[in-house]
Amino acid sequence: MAVPTNLSTLFKDLALLYARTDIQYSQLKAVTLAQWILESGWGESDLAKNHYNFGGLKWRKEMTGFATRILYQANDGADYYCQFASLERFIRGYWRFIDRSPYTGWEERTDSGEAFIRFIGPVYSPSPGYVDRVLALVDEAQMLLDTVTEPVMAPLESPSLRGTVVLDPGHGGTRKVGGSSPNNAISASGIKEKTMTLEMALLVRDALQQTAAQNGYDIRVILTRTADVNVGIAERANTASMERANLFLAIHFNGFNKQTSGVETYIRARANGNVNFEQDEAFAWRIQGAVLGALRTYAPATRDRGVKEDSASGGGVLGVLEDRALGNVPRDHPCRACLVEIEFIDVPRVDRLLNTGPDARQVRRTLAGAIAAAMVEDLLADR
Ligand SMILES: [Zn+2]
């Protein structure tokens, strides 16, 4: 057995973060990481990939504040599981999870990883041989913790960067919630905007975390939703204020008359009380340029519809960009925000480019990488 050569970036990021995290019983890091390897299949489970739940942790009310509850279809039927907003929250959430009555007593068994897992293992999973399967993975887990920290020594002169970004995949679910419609545009081939926004947000998240790991940046990435559920407009923006985010990016795809096309990015208008208009504008142009550049690599004629202000009168005010909800007031405004409409997916040519054509997957990855790079650039510029 060895660490898989094609180990996902996500799981490497988890191991790296865990290696760097101070926990009370550092001698238990390898055995707990071994547990997460087993539970998540080296980070390949949907629970891990979509909800940062590497431990197969079911929802318990004591997890409030550490996780949110999500209905999840596992191998052994649908049940409520924990959904974590970040890798950091999963790590803290795991230790919170075993700090509950069914596990009482483990703190007397912390001399070795083996003593610990022999105690909590049978409660954690009733499956016979569970403890032995975890123990068989401890060497790999230790190797991973050791190797993953090595590259950190390399970029000594790289700038240190800390930041929090919120990605907001537009729409979701099947019902209107708090002013947010479940879906708006539908692609020529029938793919819903809400599906595309979520997938793009997850790709941007992965790209951001990869950049952060490679450069030694500390970037927290939080999504307003990680599943096909709708979230109210104010609640989406409030995620930024709760997390004291530096950047908030709402991701949408457009649709109109099957002909109009192009990329456009919205910011809150001055007339609508934007307290950090210039900063929003600079951020929005970075996003607009990144999306345009990525799309033009594959579709050179992609139209630049520019950065636009949301409308001051009547309809068209974008609640998701409302400063107070984002945590911004005139004298303290940490969060730059914009809403990107990546392309008009009801245009058959655009649908082929993004969804059904031979390069569609690569186009979406390129797009996500460009968006992530633009966000990092904006964080670096505003240090
Ligand atoms: Zn939309």
TrEMBL record:
Keywords per UniProt: Hydrolase
Domain of life: Bacteria
Keyword Hydrolase applies: yes
UniProt-listed Pfam families: Amidase_3, Glucosaminidase
Residue span(s) of domain MurNAc-LAA: 237-376
The name this protein goes by in its record: N-acetylmuramoyl-L-alanine amidase
Lineage: Bacteria, Bacillati, Cyanobacteriota, Cyanophyceae, Gloeobacterales
